[in-house]
Amino acid sequence: MPLHIMSEAERCYQCKKPKCQEGCPVHTPIPEIIKLFREHNLMKAGEILFRNNPLSVICSEVCNHAKQCAGNCIRGKKDSPVHFSSIENYISEMYLDRMQVKIPELKHDKRVAVIGAGPAGLTVAVLLALEGYPVTIFEWKSKIGGLLQYGIPEFRLPKSVLERFEARLTEMGIQIRLNATIGTVLMIDNLFRDDYKAIFIGTGAEKPRSLGIKGESFGNVHFALNYLANPKAHHLGNKVAVIGVGNAAMDVARTALRNGTKEVVLYAMGKEIAASSSEVAYAKLDGAEIETGMQIQEITERGPVFKRTIYDENDKIIGTEDELIQTEADSTIIAISQVPRGKLVRTTSGLTAAENGLLIVDENYMTTREGVFAAGDVITGAKTVVHAVEGAKQAALSMINYMNNN
Ligand SMILES: Cc1cc2nc3c(=O)[nH]c(=O)nc-3n(C[C@H](O)[C@H](O)[C@H](O)COP(=O)(O)OP(=O)(O)OC[C@H]3O[C@@H](n4cnc5c(N)ncnc54)[C@H](O)[C@@H]3O)c2cc1C
Ligand code: SF4
Questions:
Q1: Which of 11, 111, 250, 385 has a Cα at 20 to 30 A from 258?
Q2: Do residue 170 and residue 311 come from a single domain?
Q3: How far is CA 402 from each of CA 4, 47, 375, 396, rounded to the nearest angstrom?
């Protein structure tokens, strides 16, 4: 066992009111896990982590720990916080290969359909399978994971973890139909026809938002998610401009620099950087530059054209200077977030969405159609893995309640 993880665990005070746990969106019982870890009871710790958050192994890699567990740890007030994520990662990595889950007798008359195999769908599938519900996942793409597979780059999240995860799902009896889109040939009505008693929609927000300016359709302009889904298929050239400064923009910059691009400049409209401080630090370490106060006007084949931002005394944006600034870039990548693509599911099944395309759910995560539930990015807009898990946990409970009463 790596000694530094054990010494990290020894640093925990085992607080009675653990701030770390409060700061975690899924309230991982951190002191209890650390105690089990110190006692070398890794299987028990792994089981608790998995049942509380089936994506624990992923969250230990990609969560914004500095804002959540570590960011709230009491030890961080005077010296460095306990880095629980390394302990969680060690346990959950090990548990993923060794777990032997006992599934209760199947409730054959209560079949559940899960649409979308991203973090939200995977969470619901696991939690319901653990309760004995027969679960079938319908996934549009050829691999599970959603944005874990097609968004977050390999160097931050090795995709092999998703293959190992998929093997465990199969062992749990979860059926996975890949390359199966709900809303084209199969509709939600067909699922109800085929005796699914509850349906979960976790179709995410994967449609790139466009800038709505001239030049977006040029051959050397791409959207972040299209690029990240298959970076090797793109030939970006030596100099790349990235419009946007969120986490996805940082991933684009770091991926481009790892694939031969020599220079990457990320452009922000104002002074604020949306990405987490650690992602910004890594992007800079890899060689990316960030230029703030640049408002995009259009994209030419030479590169993006900006006007400089004007601020008031409180740094609020109040306009732009008149001068147009033509920058030079071999390729431009637009990384200004995503919206749901869910129209297919929505329009073919009579679900109501807000104007921005997000599915509307009630306090029980039920959509406007009875028996159809939703969580994750498709109801919140682009957020994070742990927030998708959090919503999916609530939705899974509501689905169980619903099936018990119907
Ligand atoms: C580049 C990038 C980096 C990110 N980095 C981080 C990070 O470091 N940490 C973090 O916590 N979060 C990160 N996120 C956000 C995180 O990945 C998402 O919040 C999370 O994946 C949302 O989960 P979800 O299950 O709601 O949706 P998704 O992950 O989008 O999954 C939705 C799934 O549904 C499928 N689907 C869609 N429509 C249909 C249909 N009609 N029929 C069948 N299947 C369908 C899709 O193919 C997809 O597999 C990042 C996002 C991006 C884009
Ligand atoms: S706040 Fe820090 S010291 Fe206290 S229980 Fe959590 S990890 Fe341990």
A1: 385
A2: no
A3: 46, 26, 16, 10
